[in-house]
Write a structure and sequence with these properties.
By secondary structure, the protein is mostly beta strands. It is 11% helix and 32% strand. The chain contains two helices and seven strands. The strands form three sheets. A three-stranded antiparallel beta sheet has the order 2-1-4, covered by helices on one side. It is globular and about 40 Å long. 9% of the residues are buried.
Length: 114
């Protein structure tokens, strides 16, 4: 990136997402200010991946085509000026070129080559 992002690199307004009758994201709104660090935490099945896919579906930067097509039920996600997003889904194995080695976390907290 050549320049800093705008003052508000990410604005989320009333984003909603359901799977049939299960409301995973009920009208979520937030604003991220340049320089802020954020974390998305929760138990398995709480909707973390759904939230990320809802945010990156119109993000500038490296986003896989299938993630760009992710539908939300309502709301708006606005990415600010000079923002570039990189997102790899948790099941991104197919997007890595065969023969490329990657690092993976070990159960003892270390790293190992794959």
């Amino acid at each position: 990136m050549k320049r800093n992002s705008g003052k508000h690199p990410l604005e989320i307004r009333s984003v909603e997402k359901s799977y049939d009758d299960l409301k995973v994201i009920p009208r979520f709104s937030a604003s991220v200010v340049r320089g802020e660090k954020i974390a998305l935490m929760g138990r398995n099945g709480a909707g973390k991946t759904t939230m990320l896919k809802s945010l990156v579906r119109n993000a500038p930067g490296f986003i896989e085509d299938k993630d760009l097509q992710f539908p939300i039920d309502g709301g708006e996600v606005r990415w600010g000026h000079e923002v570039a997003v990189g997102y790899f889904a948790q099941d991104h194995g197919e997007s890595i070129t065969k023969g490329i080695r990657s690092m993976a976390a070990r159960s003892d907290g270390g790293m190992k080559w794959r």
